[in-house]
Write a structure and sequence with these properties.
Length: 159
């Protein structure tokens, strides 16, 4: 490999054959893509152009990620299907739908965290933590003496 080709492949060459308009769009897109954790409201979370540069929209995005994480914990620890109230087939279908929704929401939270914004990471962890405290721990569930814990609709998500 000659030094000119090596130089061009490493990103140092300025004479790449791209139209100027594509170059500008690529530069603007690369400026928004962080590959290390960073602080700040200038983020790109889940959707193109969202939350934008507004502080209010950034806070709304953080609240959205927090609620998604809590919803995942609620789905992981809920007992929606009553024992003996439906057939095995319909109960299995409901469990499958709940599992699909929970996994989809978990992937959305994961993609939000992949924005590498520290605020998003913190609210995702806080949402999972508070969601587990409220829906999964024994803090808000009075246990009757001699009563064993009933099985959940969905098994807990393993790390």
């Amino acid at each position: 490999m000659d030094s000119g080709m090596h130089h061009g492949m490493m990103g140092g060459g300025q004479n790449m054959a791209m139209p100027p308009s594509h170059n500008n769009a690529t530069m603007q897109h690369k400026m928004m893509m962080h590959m290390t954790f960073y602080w700040g409201k200038e983020a790109l979370i889940l959707f193109h152009g969202w939350p934008g540069s507004s502080t209010g929209m950034y806070v709304l995005a953080l609240i959205f990620v927090f609620v998604l994480a809590m919803l995942i914990e609620w789905l992981s620890n809920s007992r929606i299907i009553k024992q003996g109230s439906s057939s095995h087939v319909s109960a299995g279908l409901v469990q499958t739908v709940l599992h699909t929704v929970r996994v989809g929401l978990a992937y959305m939270v994961m993609l939000a965290v992949m924005s590498f914004n520290v605020g998003v990471l913190l609210v995702a962890v806080a949402g999972h933590s508070i969601g587990f405290l409220v829906f999964g721990s024994r803090v808000f569930k009075p246990q009757v003496v001699g009563e064993s814990e009933k099985p959940r609709d969905l098994p807990s998500m393993a790390c």
